[in-house]
Design brief:
By secondary structure, the chain is of the alpha/beta class. The protein has helices spanning about 15-25, 35-50, 65-80, 105-125, 145-150, 155-180, 195-200, 210-220, 250-264, and strands spanning about 5, 30-35, 55-60, 85, 130-135, 185-190, 230-235, 240. It starts with a strand and ends with a helix.
Length: about 260
């Protein structure tokens, strides 16, 4: 069955590889990128590789929450439903440490943007067939500072990244609790995959980027994962695993969501 699939951060890395794999099956794929020229080029490339003409996309700078909201409006206008939403876009190193509102760019892109985008797209998700939300977490997870999230405390790149990924995981678990009929999975696609992000951050890799794309593909459409929600998949371990302890603390999740709603 053809599915409608939206993948953020899909003009390179595992997002692009996942899009190619899914497009090869004939699904309708909606890419996302920051740069319109790169997005158009990627759309043309994937069409050529897969011979699938049902490839389109949306442009948005996810560090700008106003731009995220505008993209959500465009998606709601242009799509009748979404079966699969893969919140893949992420950032570690950046020439700019904070966005125009003074928020750490890692919190903005890795957590607040997918939070806002997903909230706006839930009506489309509820129209999907076996709808699934896949949020890209990481093995790097660290307790979230509310002050850092709000931009009043500065963190190192590594610490901000780790906190943003735990925030995403905590929210994923809460969303799974309150969202009936839509599965939500947080996934570490694999540590130090051969991607641009890993190269910029660490200058080395442990595994092929295909390792990450393969698990995203499976989580998106495999019957093996049908109906599974509110869990964390660790691709370093090859299965579902325990996330950071804070991801299971209702009081800490409550504080996170309260702070997030105030920021949004």
């Amino acid at each position: 069955m053809q599915k409608t699939i939206l993948i953020t951060g899909s003009t390179d890395g595992i997002g692009k590889l996942t899009a190619i794999k899914l497009a090869g099956d004939g699904h309708a794929i909606y890419l996302h990128g920051r740069n319109s020229q790169k997005l158009d080029s990627t759309i043309s490339e994937i069409k050529s590789i897969t011979q699938n003409e049902k490839i389109s996309g949306f442009v948005s700078d996810l560090s700008d929450l106003n731009a995220v909201e505008k993209m959500a409006e465009q998606i709601n206008t242009n799509l009748a439903k979404i079966d699969i939403l893969i919140n893949n876009a992420g950032i570690f190193k950046s020439p700019v440490s904070h966005n125009q509102k003074g928020l750490d760019i890692r919190f903005a892109v890795n957590y607040l943007a997918p939070y806002l985008l997903t909230e706006k797209l839930i009506p489309l998700m509820k129209k999907g067939i076996d709808p699934r939300i896949i949020n890209l977490s990481s093995a790097a997870q660290s307790s979230v500072s509310g002050d850092a999230l709000c931009g009043s405390v500065n963190l190192s790149e590594q610490e901000a990244y780790a906190q943003s990924k735990l925030a995403l995981t905590m929210w994923s678990f809460r969303l799974a609790e309150i969202l009936s009929g839509v599965a939500v999975i947080a996934v570490n696609p694999g540590s130090l995959l051969n991607t641009k992000m890993a190269a910029e951050a660490y200058g080395r890799s442990w595994s092929s980027a295909d390792k990450g794309a393969d698990i995203l593909y499976d989580l998106a459409i495999s019957e093996d994962f049908k109906g599974i929600t509110g869990k964390y998949f660790d691709n370093d371990q090859g299965g579902f695993a325990q996330a950071h302890p804070d991801a299971y603390s209702e009081s800490k999740i409550d504080r996170l969501i309260h702070t997030t709603k105030n920021l949004i």
